[in-house]
C-alpha cells in the first residue's frame, strides 16, 4: 500500500500546533515531574523504540496529545545524549493509513533497530477489525516514512485473536531478523482479565525474516496455562549474562504487572525453556518496560510510570487526566542477572549528576515512639540512601514517613518479622489508594539497604541489592514534604543515612 507522506505530515503538524498552544500552561502544574521524562502535553504510556542512533539515545512513547485520556495513539519522540536530559521532537508517527488510522486504535507499541544506516521502527497498526505489524524508516532519525510493504505481518497464527496481536520487538541474530509479539487465544476482556474462560491463555509468538518484509511463524516462544497470564503484552526477549530473558506485562495476574522469565533458548525449535520467574517491579505504577543495549554494552530498561483507569486500585479516577496530561517514564535502569537467575536493576550512574545539597547523618539508634526526622533536598525532589544494621536491631518493623504533613503521609515499611516491603499510600492524597506488599529477601540478612528516588508524584524504591523494586505514584499536596524514619516493636540501628536534593531537567 502506497504511503501518503503529505497526509502523514499534516497529522504531525496538527499535533505540533496543539502542543505549542498547551505546553507552557501544563508544565507549571506542581504535579509535573522534575527529572522523570513526561510528554509536553496529553496522555502518554508505554516507552518503545529505545535505541542509540547517530550518537543519541532515542525514546519513543505511546502518545495521545489532544487529551489527558487515552485515545488514538501516536508515537511521541525525544532524544538525549545522556539518558537524563531529553529534547522533545515532533511526533515520529501519526495515524494516517487504513491499517493504523482507526480512531479507536492508531499506532501501538513497537521497537527499533538500525539497519543499512537507517533507523527502522516496527509498530502495531490498530484498525477496527484487526491488529497488524508495520514498519517505518528514517535516514536522519527525525522524519519517518511508513513502508509501502505495510502491513509486513498481517495474519496472526491460527487460533489467535486478531484483535490481540501486537507489540513487535525485533532484533537481528546472525543473518536473520526475529520478532516477538504478545497474543491471546481469548478475547482480552479488560474488566475481568483474570477470567480464563473468557480471556483464554496468553502466548508469545516468534517470527523470523531474512529481509524485514516477509515474516514466517516459527513457534510460540512460551504458552501460558494460567501461570503466565491471559495476554502477554509488550514482550522483550534478549540474552543477558549467559541466559535468555523474556520480559513482559501480563494481563490476568492481578498485582503482578511486569514479569521476567530466565532460561535457555532453543533456536532450532523456537522454544524458550525458562527456569526462573520473578517480578521486575512490584509497584502499582510500573508497566511495559522495554530493553535495549547501548554502545557501552549496558543492558537498560525504561518503563511507563502510570496505571490504566480500569485497574482496581485506580477506581476510575486515579490520574491527572482532567489537567490535560498523564503518565511519565521511569529513570533508566541497568539490569543484570544474579547467580540464581534472578534479575537485578539499579538506576543508571548518570542519574547521580543531578544530585545537589548532600547531607550525611551520623549513625543513630531509632527508638519506638521517637521518630527520627531528617532533610533531603526540598523533601519532594530528592534521593534517600539508608543502611540499617539488623544484627544490632530488635525492631519488628522499620518505616519511612514520606511526603508528610498534618493530614497526609506516604508510608514505606519493612516488616522484618513477616519479611515484607509495604507501600501504604492510603493517606497520600485524595487520588491515591490502596496498599501494595511484596516479599523482602533482605529480612534474612544482617543489613537492610534502601534507596528511594522521589519526584513530584513518583516514588521509586530499590532494596535487596536491586532484586526487589517498587514504583508508585502519590498525589500529595506540595506542602506535604516532611520526612522521618520510625520503628515498631523495638529499636533499629541506622548505620548511615545520606540524602540529596535532585535538580530539575525541565527547561524554563
Could you explain the architecture of this structure?
The chain has 508 residues and is mainly beta. The longest helix has 22 residues, at 5-26. It is 5% helix and 48% strand. The chain is globular and about 70 Å long. The relative contact order is 0.12. The strands form seven sheets. Strands 23, 24, 26, 31, 32, 33 and 35 form a seven-stranded antiparallel sheet that branches. Strands 25-34-27-28-29-30 form a six-stranded antiparallel sheet, with no helix packed on it. The protein has a five-stranded mixed sheet with strand order 4-3-2-1-19. The two termini are 43 Å apart. The model has no long low-confidence stretch (mean pLDDT 95).
Secondary-structure-based class equals mainly beta
Q: Report the biggest beta sheet as strand number plus sense, adding barrel if it closes.
A: 7 strands, antiparallel
Number of domains: 2
Strand content: over 45%
Which stretches are poorly predicted, pLDDT < 50 over at least 5 residues? none
Q: Class of the largest domain, according to the CATH hierarchy?
A: Mainly Beta
Main features:
single chain; 508 residues; mainly beta; Tachylectin-2, Chain A; Jelly Rolls; 2 domains; seven-stranded antiparallel beta sheet; six-stranded antiparallel beta sheet; 35 strands
Per-chain topology:
Blueprint lengths: L4 H22 L15 E12 L2 E9 L9 E7 L5 E8 L12 E10 L2 E9 L4 E8 L6 E2 L18 E9 L2 E9 L11 H4 L2 E8 L6 E8 L7 E10 L2 E9 L7 E8 L4 E9 L7 E7 L5 E7 L19 E2 L1 E2 L3 E5 L5 E5 L7 E7 L2 E3 L5 E3 L7 E8 L7 E8 L5 E6 L4 E5 L10 E5 L7 E8 L3 E6 L4 E6 L8 E7 L3 E11 L6
Parallel strand pairs: 1-19
Antiparallel strand pairs: 1-2, 2-3, 3-4, 5-6, 6-7, 7-8, 9-10, 10-11, 11-12, 13-14, 14-15, 15-16, 17-18, 18-20, 18-21, 21-22, 23-35, 24-35, 25-34, 26-31, 26-35, 27-28, 27-34, 28-29, 29-30, 31-32, 32-33
Amino acid at each position: 500500500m502506497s504511503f501518503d507522506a503529505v497526509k502523514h505530515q499534516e497529522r504531525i503538524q496538527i499535533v505540533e500546533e496543539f502542543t505549542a498552544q498547551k505546553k507552557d500552561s501544563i508544565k507549571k502544574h506542581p504535579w509535573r515531574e522534575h527529572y522523570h521524562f513526561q510528554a509536553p502535553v496529553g496522555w502518554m504510556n508505554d516507552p518503545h523504540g529505545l535505541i542509540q542512533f547517530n550518537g543519541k539515545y532515542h525514546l519513543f512513547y505511546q502518545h495521545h496529545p489532544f487529551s489527558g485520556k487515552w485515545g488514538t495513539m501516536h508515537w511521541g519522540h525525544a532524544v538525549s545524549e545522556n539518558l537524563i536530559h531529553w529534547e522533545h521532537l515532533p511526533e515520529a508517527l501519526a495515524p494516517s493509513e487504513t491499517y493504523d488510522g482507526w480512531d479507536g486504535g492508531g499506532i501501538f507499541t513497537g521497537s527499533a533497530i538500525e539497519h543499512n544506516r537507517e533507523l527502522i521502527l516496527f509498530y502495531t497498526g490498530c484498525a477496527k477489525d484487526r491488529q497488524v505489524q508495520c514498519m517505518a524508516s528514517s535516514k536522519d532519525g527525525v522524519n519517518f516514512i511508513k513502508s509501502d510493504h505495510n502491513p509486513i505481518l498481517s495474519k496472526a497464527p491460527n487460533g489467535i485473536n486478531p484483535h490481540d496481536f501486537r507489540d513487535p520487538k525485533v532484533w537481528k541474530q546472525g543473518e536473520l531478523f526475529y520478532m516477538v509479539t504478545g497474543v491471546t487465544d481469548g478475547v482480552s476482556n479488560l474488566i475481568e482479565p483474570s477470567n480464563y474462560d473468557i480471556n483464554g491463555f496468553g502466548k508469545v509468538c516468534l517470527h523470523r525474516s531474512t529481509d524485514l518484509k516477509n515474516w514466517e511463524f516459527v513457534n510460540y516462544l512460551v504458552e501460558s496455562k494460567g501461570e503466565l497470564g491471559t495476554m502477554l503484552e509488550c514482550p522483550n526477549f534478549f540474552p543477558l549474562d549467559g541466559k535468555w530473558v523474556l520480559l513482559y506485562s501480563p494481563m490476568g495476574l492481578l498485582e503482578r504487572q511486569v514479569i521476567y522469565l530466565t532460561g535457555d533458548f532453543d533456536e532450532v525449535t523456537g522454544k524458550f525453556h525458562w527456569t526462573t520467574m520473578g517480578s521486575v517491579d512490584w509497584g502499582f505504577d510500573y508497566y511495559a518496560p522495554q530493553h535495549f543495549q547501548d554502545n557501552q554494552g549496558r543492558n537498560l530498561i525504561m518503563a511507563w510510570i502510570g496505571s490504566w483507569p480500569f485497574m482496581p486500585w485506580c477506581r476510575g479516577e486515579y490520574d491527572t487526566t482532567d489537567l490535560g496530561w498523564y503518565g511519565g517514564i521511569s529513570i533508566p535502569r541497568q539490569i543484570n542477572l544474579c547467580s540464581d537467575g534472578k534479575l537485578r536493576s539499579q538506576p543508571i550512574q548518570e542519574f547521580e549528576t543531578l544530585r545537589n545539597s548532600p547531607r550525611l547523618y551520623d549513625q543513630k539508634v531509632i527508638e519506638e515512639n521517637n521518630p527520627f526526622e531528617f532533610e533531603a533536598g526540598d523533601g519532594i525532589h530528592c534521593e534517600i540512601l539508608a543502611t540499617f544494621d539488623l544484627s544490632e536491631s530488635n525492631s519488628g518493623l522499620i518505616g519511612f514517613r514520606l511526603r508528610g504533613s498534618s493530614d497526609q503521609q506516604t508510608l514505606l515499611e519493612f516488616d522484618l518479622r513477616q519479611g515484607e516491603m509495604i507501600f501504604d499510600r492510603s493517606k497520600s492524597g485524595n487520588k491515591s489508594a490502596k496498599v501494595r506488599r511484596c516479599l523482602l529477601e533482605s529480612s534474612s540478612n544482617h543489613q537492610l539497604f534502601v534507596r528511594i528516588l522521589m519526584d513530584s508524584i513518583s516514588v521509586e524504591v530499590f532494596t535487596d541489592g536491586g532484586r526487589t523494586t517498587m514504583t508508585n505514584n502519590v498525589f500529595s499536596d506540595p506542602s506535604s514534604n516532611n520526612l522521618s524514619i520510625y520503628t515498631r516493636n523495638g529499636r533499629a540501628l541506622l548505620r548511615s543515612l545520606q540524602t540529596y536534593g535532585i535538580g530539575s531537567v525541565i527547561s524554563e
